[in-house]
Amino acid sequence: MKGSKRWIVAVTAAAVLVLAACGSSSGSTSSGSSGSTSGSKWGGAVTIAVNPWDGSSANAEVAKAILEKQGVTVALKDIDENAVWAGLDSGSIDANLEVWPSGHHTDIDTYIKEKKSVVDAGLLGPLGHIGWYIPDFVGKAHPEYKTWEGLKSQAAAKYFATAETGDKGQFLLGDPSYVSYDKDIIKNLNLPFQVVVGGSEATLITTIDKSFKDKSPLLFYFYQPQWAQSKYKLDVVKLPPISKTCETSAADQGKDGKYACDYPTDKLMKAVSAKLKSKNAKVYDFLKKMNWTAEDQNTVTTYKNADNMSMAQAATKWVDANKATWQSWVQ
User: Fold this and answer.
1) pTM for this one?
2) What share of the chain is helix, strand, coil (3-state, %, to 5)?
3) Residue 73 phi, psi (nearest 5)
């Protein structure tokens, strides 16, 4: 009888363990439905690059906010779009979430195609385009300045001139690290203008804002996606259509000095270190799946700039309101 009792106790204990295991499995499923692929957190630590424009920061902060929900420690690294490739190559930086490929043919060939130390992680979602812009009030007063031919005159140079540029018109650039062919465009189209570096995206937008307030002329480098496109009424200056010569020059990253046309439209892509897959496969898969729209990105950057939030706060607001968009990235 004592032996029978021990057998009954053993069976009962085994049943309890089975039920506990089932309960644990059920708990994992519940946790997965709330935003994680399993009951356990992913863990690990990764470093994501932030290039010097708000769109890049928005991508990184949104990824950070979601990954932290999965138990991943995320560090953000401020670095320009050119220097980031060496970091991806070495593995000191795990990902750069907004690459404009037309300006990085050499980097893509070197690190992705030849060395295979960096992986093309797919499209981010938005289309990117760089161009020349003027405020709409300038375009209304001088419609001729909405084309590059109209900017060839000395009258145009005088109209856009500043104390710094003298008898030449000012062409305003943002951050000095931005991919820019503007000096070559000006030289090769024989335009009486001088490139002036504003210093940052924030400085560029501040100058645009001042132009609208003062009704002062401004010709400048700008791009989409960009939240300020919806705040300011801007006219695009029509440059010559893209030519084979320009494509060849862009492939050389403008080193041949022959660029003389409009900028191409870019399908923005993501680049990750090849070492990330073995370092943290779940984060690697997440970053490859991450895909959102220009509207999504502009929503986050507008929260930051129009609602006086930090980019981290803006990203969290978007993440909290858009679970249906990012849920598939973590599954």
Assistant:
1) 0.85
2) 50, 20, 30
3) -90, 125
